[in-house]
Amino acid sequence: MALLVKKYGGSSLATIDHIKKVAQDIAADHQKGNMVAVILSAMSGETDRLIELSRSVSDMPPSPREQDSIVSTGEQISTALMAITLENLGCPAQSYLGWHIPMITDSSYQKARILEVGKDNLMQTLNEGKVAVIAGFQGINDKGDITTLGRGGSDTTAVAVAAALNADACEIYTDVDGVYTADPNICSRARHLNMVTYEEMLELAGLGAKVLQIRAVELARKYKVPLLVKSSFGGNRYTWIREEESNMMEDAVISGVTLDRNEAKISVINIPDEPGVAHRIINPLAESAINVDMIIQNVSIDGFTDLTFTVPSTDLHQATSLIEKVAHEIGAKEVRTNDSIAKVSVVGTGMKNHPGVAARMFKALADENINIQMISTSEIRISCIIDSKYGELSVRVLHGIFELDNSKNK
Amino acid sequence: MALLVKKYGGSSLATIDHIKKVAQDIAADHQKGNMVAVILSAMSGETDRLIELSRSVSDMPPSPREQDSIVSTGEQISTALMAITLENLGCPAQSYLGWHIPMITDSSYQKARILEVGKDNLMQTLNEGKVAVIAGFQGINDKGDITTLGRGGSDTTAVAVAAALNADACEIYTDVDGVYTADPNICSRARHLNMVTYEEMLELAGLGAKVLQIRAVELARKYKVPLLVKSSFGGNRYTWIREEESNMMEDAVISGVTLDRNEAKISVINIPDEPGVAHRIINPLAESAINVDMIIQNVSIDGFTDLTFTVPSTDLHQATSLIEKVAHEIGAKEVRTNDSIAKVSVVGTGMKNHPGVAARMFKALADENINIQMISTSEIRISCIIDSKYGELSVRVLHGIFELDNSKNK
Fold first, then answer.
1. Where are the domains positioned within chain B?
2. What are the C-alpha distances in Å from B8 to residues A57, A290, B135, B357?
């Protein structure tokens, strides 16, 4: 007997028939004597419909508080529907909204962060032999308002609940059957992986692998929650995401190549090279909760320098407004933006012990005449910003160079 | 400057354009310096859609708790949409859900009763110069679950909020322009009334006038909240519902004739005429929150009697099951049901001082060969249960007999 947390995304809940099928899977786990907590997204398309609706009445962007109240109804409906479906199968169940749990968040509507998960109500329901069916994506802030966690936030809800309940595993059911060495749509020779470390997945998720939200993986690593990614549409494939084991992946240098098209580049040209300038430029973005990813500052020439960084494309418009204001204040020459960029990355814990990975990567891109605009590295990742049009090509080239389609490698 | 509570039903919120139009009315009242609290229903059709959805996943009736969670999203969406729309007009606004206020109810899901209305949060919002946009129809019980108040519950929400805030008036905007002497669809000579007392409206609402939920009128009478019924589709007509004034309606004997087709009749035949039997029969209905309206017990013959009563048609099936069980226990001969009945009533505070109203009513029905199956009376009302097929005819006959289409009467 185990305590399982199972999360189903919108595509697994697309229709009433989908909901009934998922309910059977849940009831089967419950029937085996497991304690089961389920986290659900809204039925597919519903979140977009509700966002569209909230925008339809106003010329201005809608109040974030009010939009969150509207959007959160998607999960409110899917969870109660699932509880009804489970009861119909003879499986006792009870739905939970964010404020029922409570799932306490900060006040950043539309991208709230979880501060605390109430454990007592959920454990009582599980101890009563019921399945707890929990609305993903939503929480409550200290004003008592509904907040939402941002796109893909239900993954984060699932991991937070699994951590709070000290679950044996957190199973993420989605429309893919796990993690691959590259996006199979881009690279036909991409290979399925049965296991990756949290660290690798963090780099993979953050770089556009689309399987899991990066926050969910971060949280799983912090609380050592074993994650299992599986397809809710059948098949036997899966990927475990967990701590590195000593006997694992000794020979693997690189575990995957990823491509991210969701960033845009902002350059602030000719700024005074003096203490505090970088802070003054970046801080307004932080205050508006805009994620800055890569940041590069050129060497200073004649007391002036350039600062270039990337932000999510969706935040480019807002970020540019903020930056243009600051640029004017500090006397910068101009602000340039570019959203036709892509970030291609190679990821792998093995590269810690294998020097020369960066050199091989840069050579492979150069051999294809692909210019590298920015570079950033971590212990287990090397990323290059390139012209968007070379995105797919670069993935295939790097997948070949690092012999990821050669199964002996893993 | 006044404190106004304004309630809009689903037909006033049918589309985005309806919502924008209502927002202009609200903003205009706010602009004049009034404090404004708004109570909204779900957009028209939405509640039915959500009930249908909650039934679509299950062969059994869905869990009432879960269904309430689903159905309450209708108002959650309409209120947040209205707040966004008002802000877009430059009118500051904030939405409120049942649990935000809090609107504390008992635990009878789907027909919860309001126990207490939190006043502090709402007053703070009003004092900050914002319009409070409140989800009608919903509350929270002592388990922290969402409850709904039953059909038309938003009227009750409006009056409860008006009472809690000690509002100057509670304006109910609907798709009719007030109260008539009879249903104009049945009786073409029906006359509009500018004013009725709470007591008259209670009888009229409870008897199928469809303008206001009876619970809302009861609550308004208890807390002396002046109610104004108006059409949200324009026109200058309205009806005030308030306390009787000494100089009002001195000559009016009857203010209206109503027809109610939403009841069904249950007879328990040949029951022992001993203490406690009526209680044993009726009590299971009370415990299941089924409203019993008229109750008639025959004179006893040889120690046996019959008990006949009416319940809402929608509860007939459940009521019959309960009653058949009890009938068996107490040794009754049989249980008969009939849902092709109608209740026709004449209502008016004037009849207190005018004897002979009942006699005139019975004679008018007899003259048309309409058989009276049951009779009940109050101080200001006389009701007869008749065969359903004579419903419209009886309204027209009584409307004529009591000279309601003669404006000299009022």
1. 3-175, 256-260+341-409, 264-338
2. 17, 39, 11, 37
pTM of the model: 0.78
Note whether B138 and B112 are within 8 A (CB).
no
Contact A53 B81 (CB under 8 A): yes
| Interface membership of A99 toward B (CB under 8 Å) | yes
By DSSP bridging, strand A304-312 and strand A227-231 are: unpaired
As a whole number of angstroms, the distance between CA A292 and CA A309 comes to 7
Dihedrals φ, ψ of B391, to 5°? -55, -60
CB contact under 8 A, B87 and A58: yes
CATH number at B256-260+341-409? 3.30.2130.10
DSSP-derived pairing of the beta strands B93-96 and A381-387: unpaired
A3-175: what fold?
Carbamate kinase (3.40.1160)
B264-338: same fold as B256-260+341-409? Answer: yes
Q: Cβ of B85 under 8 Å from any chain A Cβ?
A: yes
Residue in A with minimal Cα distance to B80: A66
Q: Where are the beta strands (DSSP E) in B122-279?
A: 131-135, 138-140, 146-148, 169-174, 179-180, 192-193, 195-197, 227-231, 238-242, 256-260, 263-272
Q: How far apart are CA A300 and CA A298, in angstroms?
A: 6
User: Tens digits of per-residue pLDDT, B156-200?
Assistant: 999 999 999 999 999 999 888 888 898 888 888 999 999 999 988
Q: Is the pLDDT of residue B208 over 90?
A: no
**Out of A140-144, A385-389, A391-395, B205-209, least confident range:** B205-209
Put simply, the answer to whether B50 touches A99 (Cβ < 8 Å) is no
Output the DSSP codes for A135-151: ETTEEE-TTS-EEE--T
**Backbone φ, ψ for residue A194 (5° rounding):** -85, -20
B contact test, residue of A84, A99, A110, A128 with most B CBs within 10 A: A84
Q: A162-166, A338-342, B281-285, B315-319: lowest mean pLDDT where? A: B281-285
Please give the C-alpha separations between residue A322 and each of A318, A331, B391, in angstroms, as whole numbers. Answer: 6, 14, 70
- CATH superfamily entry for domain B264-338: VC0802-like (3.30.2130.10)
pLDDT in tens, A17-65: 999 999 999 999 999 999 999 999 999 999 999 999 999 999 999 999 9
For the question of an ipTM over 0.85, the answer is no
Chain A residue numbers touching B146 (CB-CB < 8 A): 97
Instruction: In whole angstroms, give the CA distance from residue A334 to residue A327.
Output: 7
Q: Nearest chain A Cα to B70, which residue?
A: A77
- Reported as a single tens digit per residue, the pLDDT across B3-29 is 999 999 999 999 999 999 999 999 999
- For B354, phi then psi, to 5°, come to -125, 95
Which of A16, A20, A57 has its CB closest to that of B84? A57
